[in-house]
Amino acid sequence: MPCIPKAPLLQSPNRQKCILIDYCSTSHPYIPSIIIHCTIALEREHLDREGIYRISGTVSAVTKLLNSFLSSRVIPDLSNVPTENITGCIKKFLKELRDCVVPSTSFEQFIHAIESNDEQQIITCVFELPAPNRDTLAYFILHLQKVSQHSSTNKMPIENLARVLAPTIIGYSKRLPFKIAEEFTVNSNQTMILHRLLKLPSVRFLDDSFF
Amino acid sequence: MAKKQYDLLFKLLLIGDSGVGKTCILYRFSDDAFNTTFISTIGIDFKIKTIELKGKKIKLQIWDTAGQERFHTITTSYYRGAMGIMLVYDITNARSFENIAKWLRNIDEHASEDVVKMLLGNKCDMTDRRVISKERGEKIAIDHQIRFLETSAKSNINIDKAFYDLAEAILDKMPSQSSTNSMSIRPVEQESNKPQGGCC
What's a Pfam family in this record (chain B) (predicted)? Predict the structure, then answer.
């Protein structure tokens, strides 16, 4: 296990309002330690689990695990935690951020880049994100690509991972009152963005500018 | 009078954890097909099937929801109009069973009070991977006073029965309409508090 710097514990009683940087250490790379711990645990022995990231964990156990990550100085032992609770913990953490890893303000820009079908433009979008978002996104995409390499056993190719995780990772600006039909289009667009990002060659995210 | 293809329209909703087989149940019922691809539903989708029950043509509009937590804001908005809800778990996945309480709370919060609920333990063909006994399913259903069936979309076990039973329960709950049909037999209503008879 590498040394993973932990951000100071948050004092704020209302954790739901925090942004990504609040969970990152003060030095590069800006990736919340919870993401690193969970993905390392998953990559160690869970990648062949059928439906990884799709199947839900137990709601109460996931909440408890997330709380112990965020409110305790001791890092929870993940060695006997079921796959679904670890992935559930990552998803719940990302869901409760004030904004998504790809912030809602970048939604249009990403859509535009993807419609132009210019790989460089898509990468530029990622580079232009705030440092914690950029690092976390790049790190998480690389992790998901590893997950998809096991799709013959876990049945989670990138299409399925994109469907399952897009609403958690890709933000969009909600204009009220929103219509259900509109929301549906947004969902498809979110999935399209994540799918395209997952299709980028891994080496694009291993650039020196990342991490 | 405009001629309708059906007498009644019932809106049904399928809910439950990701990967328990909601879409497969719906496809088996609507198209009598089964597909082993493991693709998540985005948001919400629906299928229509018309059935005949007690001499009535009933159009079932069945909404299939995404099990992913992140879609809940969309999917819960569909609870309101539903007349019947099928809550599905997977007998090979203990966590999907443990989350039943959460789904029932969702129903209480978002669905109308008189919605007819049904619990389905899906994938009952996978006997070697079963972790939730039929008795546990029956017990939780009795505790919450809801109907219960074990199903298999793959082997086509109890799929039609589930939809017909649910539709019948909704039909039985409806105030008897003044129709040309004679009264259907309804064993639940032993003591008739409203004398039926005469024309209206």
Answer: Ras
| Inter-chain CB proximity B39 and A160 less than 8 Å | yes
Q: Does B183 reside within a domain?
A: no
Report yes or no on B192 lying in a domain.
no
Does the beta-carbon distance from B71 to A167 stay under 8 Å? yes
Chain B residues with CB within 8 Å of chain A CB: 17-19, 38-40, 42-44, 67-71, 74, 77, 93, 95-96, 98-99, 102
Parent domain of B25: 8-174
Residue B56: what pLDDT? Answer: 94
The CATH number that applies at residue B137 is 3.40.50.300
Q: What ipTM does this complex have?
A: 0.75
> Which of A7-16, A191-200, B134-143 has the weakest average pLDDT?
A7-16
CB contact under 8 A, A164 and B17: no
Total number of domains in chain B = 1
Position A78: which residue type? L
Name chain A contacts of B43, Cβ cutoff 8 Å: 183-184, 187
What value does the mean pLDDT take over residues A165-185? 76
DSSP A55-68: S---HHHHHHHHHH
B145 found inside a domain: yes
Convert B10-23 to b/e letters by CB count within 10 Å (16 or more is b). Answer: bbbbbbbbbbbbbb
Question: Which are the contacts of A93, defined by CB distance < 8 A and separation ≥ 6?
Answer: A32, A34, A35, A66, A69, A70
Confidence (pTM) = 0.82
Residues above pLDDT 90, as percent of chain B: 69
Instruction: Tell me the average pLDDT across A109-122.
Output: 93
Q: pLDDT tens digits, residue range B3-50?
A: 678 999 999 999 999 999 999 999 999 999 998 778 888 878 889 999
Q: Which of A113, A143, A142, A127 is nearest to A209 (CA)?
A: A127
Cβ distance A58 to B93 less than 8 Å, yes or no, reads no
Cα distance between residue A148 and residue B64, in whole Å: 26
